[in-house]
Amino acid sequence: MKNDLSRREFLQRTAGATGAFAASHRIFLQPEHIPLPLESTPPSERVRFGIIGIGMQGSGLLTNAIQLPGVECVAAADLWDGRHELAQEIVGSKIPTTRRYKELLDNKEIDCIVAAVPDHWHKQVVVDAVNAGKDIYCEKPMSHSAADGVAMVAAAKKTGRIVQIGSQRVSSVICAKAKELLANGIIGTITLVEGTYGRNDPTGAWEYPPPPGLSPSNFDWDTWQGEATKRPWDPDMSPKYFARWRCWKEYGTGLAGDLLVHLVSGMNFMLGWNDPPRRALALGNILRFKDGRNMPDVHATLFDYGEDRPPVYLRLNLGCDTPETYRFQGSHGILEVTEFNITYFPQSGVDEGPSYYTYGFPREMREAYFKKWHEEHDPKPGKEPVTEGYNFHGASWDEEKPHLWKYFQAVKSRQPVVEDAVFGNNAALACHMANESYFRKAAVTWDAATSTIKS
Hints:
By secondary structure, the protein is α/β, with parallel strands linked by helices. It has helices at 7-14, 56-65, 81-91, 102-106, 122-131, 146-159, 173-183, 221-225, 238-243, 254-271, 363-377, 401-413, 421-440; strands at 21-28, 47-52, 71-77, 97-98, 112-115, 135-139, 163-166, 190-198, 279-285, 298-304, 312-317, 322-330, 333-338, 341-346, 387-393, 444-447, 452-454.
């Protein structure tokens, strides 16, 4: 007789040891307590910061930071005059503004800095800030290149200043709970880590509208380029470079620096890792947004973090919308982590019925095996185990206030932060390795002895 039972059907017919699966329990996570802005703070305990870069990200950081109790912004710097106006709209018309960020570093009334500048300016701003005795919050990714990151770590260690990188996952209640669950072995032996994130619109692919009227009269184009390029002002292309800098490797780090760094930072935090990958192999292409960019719009990377650690597969796509999701897979099930939720899908990791391999046995032998298996494994009636799943719900891991609050508290207490220069650099190195593998069309390794990425 033809055996057309599927594996699933066979297990359903023969299993006796498996208990019922209970519905998942939903548990709400309480956010970290941040005092209300109205709670008064003595002037001597206030943190006074200056902000460098008031663009899309910087304006959000500024808006959130000044809503925190005991925190005030006293100066703003940007190379486009339009953002001077924006800073005054957010903070108040009396806030001084400048194109020269070093004026903020020389200001003795400023305790620390918040910086949200293009990637190619991260190293210089951070090194200048810590050398001037200022703590600094720098947007992700920490660096524009592996060499930049090495220099930034060295400067932070030499000066002893606080450097916090801006990947908010590290301060999220969602990621903190996932870290606890993973550390307690909820999924057993971790065998694979997957992460994915996709967008499907031009804005998501950084095709931002350049500011109307941007010109050398209101924008310092030459300084903005830094050491990256020496292009003369081009009324057609220069405004696009300014607004869409993530599209070009000269100024940005593409999908790796914009999105992959979030996946890596969150993963490292949840798994308790703080080192760069040993190897990376990436594939990608420019498939949808053929707008002159030189960074891929689809980018998938395999990472090797060393022996006894699971392989990591992270994929990004600007041509199809998918929610940002982690799936930690292990011998006891799957822990899925998303922006607002953690869901545990349990698995026993043991045979839940007689082996379907025995369908290759003669009938008498097979039935004897079935009888013995059930005698040894079936629970007594009423004693069947119940497998429970869990669902945790909390505030978005994109919330900026908890991450900013930890930074400003560290500035006051002088206690170390989690996402310091070392942590930020290790996450950024994964991104640089993904980009290098893409451009070299080969696997790459991190050579710690020489602090370089090698093919």
